[in-house]
Write a structure and sequence with these properties.
The complex is a heterodimer of chains A (about 300) and B (about 500). Chain A has about 300 residues and is an all-alpha fold. Chain A is built from 14 helices and no strands. In chain B, helix 10 packs antiparallel against helix 12 and helix 16 packs antiparallel against helix 17. The longest helix of chain B is centred in the first third of the chain and has 20 residues.
Chain lengths: ~300, ~500
């Protein structure tokens, strides 16, 4: 087990390093931020002077070496646009991203699991069709559109929820639902298939024959067995939720790292982009690792096989 | 009875809440301030926050005239030396006095290349600054520099002692100035909260608290305004403005700015090398339709590549008329029928305007292919060699100095990175206007320069761009052409 963990961690380190290197060079291929920073009328000499002061006239490989050196000392550097430590800038946004991912996960589980069970139990009926429509909508509506609709309905027309920002628990509701919609659909479909599969098994027939109600059968027996694939998917989905909030954060003015990433890419704020990529890739890798471990923990057969 | 009482109490509480609300002004920004140190970033979102924390050496009044602020008066000792009298009754927000040393420090810091200020090019004509009396500062310029005062409207005075004590990074996070508002808290990406400064020397600030919130998506800013979450939102486009026009319970504040929209036409490469093709383009573009259909009326036609809000604008220059028949003839004459023009552009520029121009030029026999690039790549090519720069592109230019020198010199002077044009007569005219303080002479020079540009058509002016804000109707404010955002100029009226 420890050896397994160790090799996975080594893989993770290599993957992160690869991602960082690619991002470092790709970002710099299409030009440095100097042109975006200077006023429109700046002359060639003035631009060259600022470029020199910022260090972008050095060969790429020298810049790369300097960057790796700083990274080894755990120094993420200073943002050249915001003139503040990158660690502070990114660190300030991470709690908001975690909060939003948590909210989205709760929304996805809270709606997706019961919907999946209901769709399995009342298969072929009106309820399944109705729920299937919602699941399909959650899966196919683009968030830049559904987000605005949510804001117009619950923020402007009804006035129940704040239209933007991150200053209260209420302001978490809409972005969570918007971000969680796709994950919710995934959970609902996964749960439906898993529950349907279990419902056909002999132990369900036996339990029902003993006079156990359908609800009790599902709660006591089916849910547990159906959980295995769902939990595995959940761990992977958390990675998606942490990384995939760019549009939701922009629409709802949620100050997470997705929004910061977009702004920093547009401003060519290299060090901030690199720090975000590092964070996201580490998160993904960490979540994959957790999924592996969760799978082992839930299913004793896998542990035995290992 | 008890019910009536509680309703009455509730009403009193509610009205109290409504009155208390007026103490706080909430502003939706397009993006978070990049820096609050006024000497680093100069983008309009950052400036709209920090200009309220600091005072400037000089400023502009509603009409655009340069008027005193930290400096009470100034005079030219000679063509390259300006002497400023500094107010002696201004205090920074920590209670220390603003002195001429602070003014000199502010100039020297922003002009020090090692400080790496992106604003350096706006101030680098200043070669010396010194305290020349108990309340006097003298600035020296490389050459006679007529745009100096216009540039100094952007020079915020910072406290030397505080900056040196905190260091640059900490000062950017905790800026302290002598302006009407002081920073209470800056939660990056979330909001910036400012408190009114007691005893501010220009009078009591209109709101106790001002909150700036970055809301990137324009539809969300509009929703904030409709829901009452924001009192004023920045950065509305003509389309949002048109959809809000008839809506009760909010107002639109639109103002023609110093920004000019134009079409660059490359005279040094491709089919547009032929001046007849360039003139044909000028006559093929229907500016009135662009203004009414795309800009929803938020644009004023211009006669040249300059906003009427800028010094040097010449209303006597005759713009090319919209005449597709004449344009078609010219294209034929030049043998350019079906010639392919590359239209370089980036996502920052209005896509519909690109397509409208493409269509209009198509109508007179020119084939336009639009090349979409990311902004840094676009800038690199547009500022590169004539061959890289494409045949045409659109631009919106503001020098933040309201002077022709900051517009047509960088756009068309030989050797400037933007210029793909070279005409010694034009160069002589704009060089002459740059080197004299005599306004009459400068206007005459610019007249000559614009006459030459009209002949050669290295670009055509489309319209004077507008800044559009949405606000609650109680907010009283007259926005200005320089897009300044001074809360001190606003007030609330029920």
């Amino acid at each position: 087990m420890l050896r397994h963990l160790g090799s996975r961690l080594a893989q993770a380190a290599i993957a992160s390093f690869g991602v960082l290197t690619i991002v470092f060079f790709v970002m710099r291929l299409s030009g440095d931020p100097t042109l975006l920073l200077v006023p429109e009328g700046a002359s060639r000499e003035q631009i060259a002077e600022l470029r020199h002061e910022l260090g972008f006239d050095r060969p790429l490989i020298v810049q790369y070496g300097a960057y790796l050196g700083d990274l080894l000392r755990l120094d993420l550097g200073e943002s050249l646009v915001q003139r503040a430590p990158v660690a502070t800038i990114v660190g300030h946004r991470i709690p908001y991203t975690l909060e939003l991912a948590g909210g989205a996960l709760i929304a996805a589980l809270g709606i997706g699991l019961p919907a999946g069970v209901a769709m399995a139990v009342w298969r072929g009926g009106l309820i399944e069709r109705g729920l299937a429509a919602i699941v399909l909508a959650g899966q196919s509506l683009p968030t830049f559109w559904s987000g605005i609709l949510l804001i117009l309905l619950f923020g402007v027309l009804l006035g129940w929820l704040p239209t933007s920002g991150a200053d209260s628990l209420a302001s978490l509701v809409m972005p969570s639902v918007a971000l969680g919609a796709l994950t919710m659909s995934t959970f609902a479909r996964m749960t439906r298939i898993a529950v349907l599969d279990e419902l056909q098994r002999d132990y369900v027939t036996a339990a029902r024959a003993r006079g156990l109600s359908l609800a009790a059968t599902i709660a006591r027996h089916v849910a547990r067995n159906a959980a295995i694939p769902v939990v595995t998917v959940a761990a992977l989905e958390i990675g998606n939720l942490l990384a995939g909030a760019v549009i939701v954060e922009t629409v709802f003015a949620w100050p997470g790292i997705g929004q910061l990433a977009i702004q920093s890419i547009q401003a060519r704020d290299f060090l901030v982009v690199q720090a975000i990529v590092l964070f996201v890739s580490l998160t993904y890798i960490g979540m994959n690792l957790l999924a592996d471990l969760a799978y082992v923990a839930i299913d004793p057969r896998i542990r035995l096989a290992a | 009875m008890r019910l009536t009482c509680s309703i009455a109490v509730a009403l009193v509480l509610l009205s109290g809440a409504a009155r208390a609300e007026k103490d706080t002004l909430t502003i939706d920004l397009v993006a978070d301030a990049a820096t609050l140190d006024p000497q680093i970033q100069w983008d309009s979102e950052s400036a709209s926050v920090y200009r309220n924390i600091f005072d400037n050496l000089v400023t502009r009044d509603q009409s655009g005239k340069i008027v005193p602020q930290v400096a009470t008066a100034w005079h030219y000792a000679n063509d390259t030396t300006v002497v400023f009298d500094i107010r002696s009754d201004i205090k920074f927000q920590d209670g220390t006095k603003l002195t001429p040393d602070d003014v000199v420090f502010s100039v020297k810091r922003v002009t020090d290349p090692a400080f790496k200020s992106p604003q350096l090019s706006q101030f680098d004509q200043i070669v010396g600054a010194e305290v020349s009396g108990p309340s006097q500062v003298t600035l020296h310029t490389k050459t006679p520099y007529p745009v100096l005062l216009a540039q100094l409207t952007k020079l915020s005075v910072i406290p030397q002692a505080t900056v040196q004590k905190l260091g640059d990074t900490a000062f950017n996070q905790h800026p302290l100035g002598s302006g009407p508002y002081k920073l209470r808290d800056w939660s990056r990406g979330v909001q910036i909260t400012l408190d009114a400064q007691d005893g501010y020397w220009r009078g009591k600030p209109p709101f106790k608290t001002v909150i700036f919130r970055p809301v990137t998506d324009v539809s969300t800013r509009v929703a904030d305004l409709r829901a009452g979450r924001a009192d004023i939102v920045r950065g509305l486009g003509p389309d949002q403005a048109a959809s809000l026009k008839t809506e009760k319970g909010l107002q639109l504040l639109g103002v023609p700015t110093e920004r000019v929209a134009y079409i660059f036409i490359n005279p040094q490469s491709g089919p547009t090398k032929d001046v007849r093709v360039r003139r044909a383009i000028a006559m093929a573009i229907d500016r009135d339709t662009i203004i009414s259909a795309l800009q929803q009326g938020y644009g004023k036609p211009v006669n040249e590549v300059l906003s009427p809000a800028d010094f040097g604008y010449d209303p006597t220059i005759e713009p090319y008329p919209f005449d597709p028949d004449a344009a078609r003839k010219l294209v034929k004459e030049a043998g350019a029928e079906g010639a392919e023009l590359t239209f370089l552009t980036a996502p920052a520029y209005d896509r519909r305007l690109n397509e409208a121009v493409q269509q209009m030029l198509g109508d007179v026999g020119l084939k336009v292919s639009i090349t979409m690039l990311d902004l840094p790549t676009y800038l690199k090519r547009r500022q590169g060699t004539p061959e890289e720069a494409g045949s045409i592109s659109q631009g919106r230019w503001s020098c933040s100095c309201q002077d022709a020198d900051g517009v047509i010199w960088p756009l068309f002077h030989t050797g400037s990175i933007w210029s793909k044009y070279s005409n010694p007569k034009f160069d002589a005219a704009v060089d002459s206007a740059r080197a004299t303080l005599d306004e009459k002479q400068r206007l005459a020079d610019y007249h000559t320069a614009f006459e030459i540009l009209r002949e050669d058509v290295p670009a055509i002016g489309l319209f004077q761009d507008f800044a559009i804000y949405g606000a609650r109707p109680q907010l009283k404010w007259t926005p200005t052409a320089d897009e300044a955002f001074f809360v001190m100029d606003m007030h609330w009226q029920e």
